Every structure is written in C-alpha cells, then in structure tokens.
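Hey, resending since the last one bounced:
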Amino acid sequence: MIVLEPVGFVHNACTVSQVPENIRKEISEIEILPPYAEGLFDIEQCEYLDLVFSFHREKETELITRVRTGETKGIFASRSPRRPNHIGVTTVKLLRRDNNRLYVEGADALNGSPVIDIKYCDTSVFDQSVLHRSIRKDSPRIDIVRNILDNNTPELLLHAAQLHGHICPGLALGVMAATRVMHQLYEEQRDPADFTLAIHMKNCPIDGILYVTGLTPGNNRLTLHYSDEMYFEVKDKQGHGWNVRLSPSNRDYLQSQLPDTLSATKKGFAVLNLDFNQLFILKLFN
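The structure tokens again:
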C-alpha cells in the first residue's frame, strides 16, 4: 500500500471548482509544513516549479472522459481531475519565498489542496515549441479555448482572418459575439460537443462565429440561414443556451465610434474595444 502524507497546503481565493485558466490567474500561497521546511533551501534559484497536489474535493473517478475541446479520451490521456488517485501536477512560477511559504503563479489547485511534492521544473530535455505542437496535434482547439477564456479577442480575430481572408468590422463583430457566448459556456464547464449552432445572418460575421465556436458543417453542428435577421443561437438538446442578435442601432453606434479615416483592419480591431451591449442583444435560454 502506498501512503502519501502532505508536505504542505495550497492557500488561495479559489474555493469552488472552475476552469483551470481562472484558478491559474490567482497568486497562490504554498505553505510547507515545518518538518519539511528545510527542503526549501535554495529554492529561490528556481524560476519554475512542478507542483504535485491532491484534487481533495474530487470524489468521482472515470476512465473514459470527454475533454472540454470535445474529444473523448482515456483518463491517462487527459488532465481531468477525475483520476484514480486524484493527483494533480502543474507547473508554477515562483514569485517569492517567505520562510516556509512560497508565493506562486499558475497553480490550478483549489484552496486547501494538500501538496504532495514540489520539484524543480526541468524542461531541458524537450524543445517547448515541439511540446506545444504535439499538444495541438492532439487537441487542435486548445489555443482557441485559452484565448476565449482570456478574452483575447485580438488574437482570435487575427486567426479568424486566416479563414476569412481579411480583417474587417464584420469579422470582428462575429469574433466578439461568439467569444462572449463561448466564454460563458466554458466558465460553466459545459461540454461544447453538447451544443449546436444556428446562424441567421449573412456576410462577414459568420466566419468569426464559426472560428470561435468550432461548431461547423463538418461536425454536423451547424445550420446556416442566409438572412437579414442577423442573429445566432448556441443551444444544447434541452434548448438551453444563448441567442445573440445584432442591435438595431449597431450601425449608428459603429459609425459614431469608428472614424472614416481608419482602415478596415484598424476598424476591425477597434470594434473589439467597443461596448458589447451597444452592439448586441444577448438572451439566455434556461
């Protein structure tokens, strides 16, 4: 029998389960228990550490799981907390040490998580770009998901333009609206594979919506109606989801905020900084 004793505990403001990207934004305090404090000697020289901890609030175990990008995987091919031993491993950045307390950035552990071990992070064996490319091969939308959760609409717009062919206000509107919906979907830890997309509009916003949501004709989760109604819906099988419609006054608002002297590209990026509620009407279906 393997018996693991905590060497410390995680302290932060995250008390309930949520998407890892949100937890990682918190500064976590890692309290190392006195009997193990000597093991912190010279740790200040380590910029990054591997934190091994327990998912202490997770009670379920599943050997087959669906990850948030939609793929079905074995638990050992995922980072799901529903593991046989509920052990988590994450790389954190060490900000400072105060005696037996470490202050780190990037931990995705909830408040009170028992710390099993801390190790110097050794990434010298592999080129990091090769590692990330390998991850993208397995989960092609991983960067899109992270940009959605970070509300990094400029980056999403740049990549959507690779599909659309150019950057313009219409494409930016599609990116902006779809990011708002998908951000909420991921925040609620819903599975995108349970949702379908119905688009009732035409022209440039469509490509932005398709890129951000990933709900496309190829995966049989899109119905497209070329229409002047200018709205789209993301719903699950029970009819729960979101309806996003362009506000009737959106054109006037855009004209008042975007100088004619700006190029189409600059107007596209400028749209991302405008008031969402002036551009769209969002309705939630419960």
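The two ends are 47 Å apart (CA to CA).

Sorry for the duplicate.
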